[in-house]
Amino acid sequence: MRRENRRRQIDEGLDGKKILYITGSVLALAVIAFVITFLIYGNNANDKLELSKSKDNEIIGNLMPVEETSTSYGKTVNEVEEENSQENEEETEKIAINTSQVQEANTTRNDETEVKKEETNKKEETAKEPEKVEDPEFKKPVEGEVIKDFADNKLVYSSTLDVWTTHNGIDIKADETTVVKASAEGTVSSIKNDPRYGLTVIVEHVNGYKTVYANLLSTEFVVEGEEVKQGQSLGTVGSTASFEILDEPHLHFELLKDNKQLDPELYLK
User: Which of 18, 32, 151, 175 is deepest in the core (most CB within 10 A)?
Assistant: First the structure.
C-alpha cells in the first residue's frame, strides 16, 4: 500500500514536471513567435514609412521650383534676402538697359527721319530752283568804228549840245540804211521814238540783260514781242537822235544788266 502511494506520488510529481516543461516550452515558443512577429512588422512599417516619405518628397519636389529649393536650402534669411535683392537689381538693370536701347533706337529713327526730311527739302528746293542759264554772248550789231565811247563816270564832248556830258552807250560809225542786227538772242520788248535818241528798239535777253539800238532810220523788220535770233535784222541806221544829230551817221548802242548801264565794248565779241 505504501509502495502504491509512493509510486502514485512519484507519478504525480513527474506529471507536474511534465506540465511545467510543457507550459515553459509553450511560453518560450510564444515569446519567440512574438519577437519574430514584432521584427517583421517593424521592418515592414519602416519600409512603408520610408516609401511614404519618398513619395511625399517627390510630390513636394514637383510642386516647388527646383531652383528655389536648391538655392534656398541651408541658407540664412539674410542670405536669401540678399540674393533676392541682387536679383531685383539685375532685373532693374536689364529693364534700364532695354529702356536705353529703345530710346537709342527711337533717337536713331528720329535722326534718320530728320535726315530724310532734309534730303527731301533739299530735293524740293533744288526742284524749285530754276536751271542756271549761261549769260549770252554779244556781237557788234553793225560793223564800224566806235566814234564815241561809253562814259558813265567821266564826261565826253557833245558837238550837238556843245557841252561835256555822260554817255550811256557807244556810237558805232555806219552809213545810213546799214542793216542793224540783234547782238544776241532775245525778245523785242519795245519799239519807240525816243525824244533824245530817236527811233529805238529794245531787246531783252536772259539773266537780266538788255540791249538798246537807237538813232535808227526804220524798224520794219520786227514787231514788239517777237523773239529774235542773234544776227537777225532789227532795222537800219539813220540820224533821228536829236542829241546827236550833228554827229556822223552811226548806231547808238547800249547794254544793261538788271537796268544798270554797262560798257558794251567789254562784252562784245
Answer: 151
Q: For residue 32, give the 3-state DSSP assignment.
A: helix
Distance between alpha carbon 185 and the CA centroid of its chain, in Å?
45
Q: How far apart are the first and last CA of the chain?
A: 193
Q: Where are the beta strands (DSSP E) in the chain?
A: 146-148, 151-158, 163-167, 170-173, 179-181, 186-194, 198-204, 209-218, 227-228, 233-237, 250-257, 260-262
Place of cell 507536474: 16
How is residue 222 written as a grid cell? 520786227
Contacts of 265 (CB under 8 A, 6+ apart): 146, 149, 150, 170
DSSP letter assigned to residue 168: S
Which residue segments constitute the domains of the chain, with CATH numbers given? 146-266 (2.70.70.10)
Taking the complete model, does pTM exceed 0.70, yes or no? no
Instruction: Please say whether the beta carbons of 243 and 126 come within 8 A.
Output: no
Q: Which of 243, 174, 171 is nearest to 212 (CA)?
A: 171
DSSP summary character for residue 87: H
- Work out the burial of residue 28: count CB atoms within 10 Å of its CB; fewer than 13 is exposed, 13-18 middle, 19 or more buried: exposed
Look up residue 92 and give its three cell numbers. Answer: 532693374
With H, G, I as helix, E, B as strand and everything else as coil, classify residue 203: strand
DSSP secondary structure letter of residue 268: B
* Side-chain-facing half-sphere of 236: CA atoms under 13 Å: 8
